């Protein structure tokens, strides 16, 4: 909804989402909430969430990440904050802050060890995500990126309903584009009346280190075709870049620079 303040308690509009939406914390002022979704796990949804956040951070914006991928949280690790302590006054929770200044909340920060499995069922997971939104003191934020649970099942659906998403970015891999998985994510967003900002084809190719030639290891790219099919903006066809993997594993994703990232940065300037 246009001009939505994301605070249903202060609003007298009668919109379809209001009964499910969790209220924003009274000490928070989050201007844009953008969900990053994928039809299945492992396509790079968390990595793209991290890249979107660091690019907006480099634009000078105030940025936050809500790690909604509760059963496979990786945002804490790639930003190197997983050992930081979450602070709470018993009521509100203070998010941790990355080296570059991105505020982060993730289930990993609450677990005893990072390899503790999360075996909660859907309603508990959805409740925790609502808590991440309502009980966390986010302060002033220009862009919050939500790393959504993968897939189009019950848990992502509840997250769609609980958070006041202004738009979503759909992340896919070349193999996924051939199937119906993107279509499912598109239809879920349409049913929830959430605008789709665009499509990112991740791991689209690798660049030969000797001759710079693009090698399409998963076969011909279908990114543009699929974007056209669903009337979406193709935000990027990003390569498989081993430096991104390495820096993410070291918790230093914010040190990542690459020529291809410049193009992606240009493309997302106006989101
Ligand atoms: P998802 O969130 O969809 O499960 P991740 O973002 O965790 O996927 O990515 C899975 C693995 O692939 C991680 O080890 C990540 O560092 C790596 N990865 C993702 N995208 C890229 C990329 N474009 N280049 C190199 N490695 C990548």
Q: Report the sheet with the most strands, covering strand number, pairing sense and barrel closure.
A: 8 strands, mixed
Output the helix-strand order.
EHEHEEEEHEHEHHEEEHEHH
Radius of gyration: 18 Å
| Sheet with the most strands: spatial strand order | 5-6-2-7-1-8-9-12
**Span of the ends, CA to CA:** 16 Å
CATH topology: Rossmann fold
Number of spatially distinct domains: 1
Bound molecules: adenosine-5'-diphosphate
Strand segment count: 12
Approximately what portion of the residues adopt beta-strand conformation? Answer: 15-25%
Q: In CATH's first tier, which class applies?
A: Alpha Beta
Helix content: 25-40%
CATH superfamily: P-loop containing nucleotide triphosphate hydrolases
The number of helical segments is: 9
The secondary structure category is alpha/beta
**Low-confidence stretches at least 5 residues in length (pLDDT < 50)?**
none
Tell me the CATH architecture: 3-Layer(aba) Sandwich
User: Tell me, what's the shape?
Assistant: globular
Look at the structure and give the mean pLDDT: 87
């Amino acid at each position: 909804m246009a001009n939505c303040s994301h605070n249903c308690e202060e609003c007298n509009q009668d919109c379809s989402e209001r009964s499910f939406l969790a209220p924003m914390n009274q000490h928070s002022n989050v201007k844009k909430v953008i969900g990053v979704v994928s039809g299945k796990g492992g396509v790079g949804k968390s990595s793209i969430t991290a890249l979107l956040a660091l690019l907006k951070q480099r634009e000078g914006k105030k940025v936050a990440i809500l790690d909604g991928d509760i059963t496979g949280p990786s945002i804490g690790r790639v930003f190197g904050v997983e050992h930081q302590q979450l602070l709470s006054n018993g009521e509100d929770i203070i998010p941790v802050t990355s080296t570059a200044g991105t505020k982060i909340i993730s289930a990993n920060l609450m677990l005893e060890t990072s390899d503790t499995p999360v075996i909660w069922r859907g309603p508990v997971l959805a409740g925790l995500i609502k808590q991440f939104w309502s009980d966390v003191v986010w302060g002033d934020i220009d862009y919050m990126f939500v790393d959504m649970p993968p897939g189009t099942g019950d848990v992502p659906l509840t997250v769609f309903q609980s958070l006041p998403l202004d738009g979503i970015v759909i992340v896919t891999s070349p193999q996924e584009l051939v199937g119906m998985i993107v279509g499912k994510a598109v239809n879920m967003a349409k049913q929830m009346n959430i605008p789709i900002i665009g499509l990112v084809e991740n791991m689209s190719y690798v660049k030969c280190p000797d001759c710079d030639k693009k090698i399409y290891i998963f076969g011909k790219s279908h990114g543009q075709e699929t974007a056209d099919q669903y009337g979406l903006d193709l935000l990027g066809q990003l390569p498989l870049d081993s430096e991104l993997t390495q820096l993410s594993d070291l918790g230093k994703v914010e040190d990542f620079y690459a020529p291809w990232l410049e193009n992606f940065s240009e493309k997302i300037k106006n989101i």
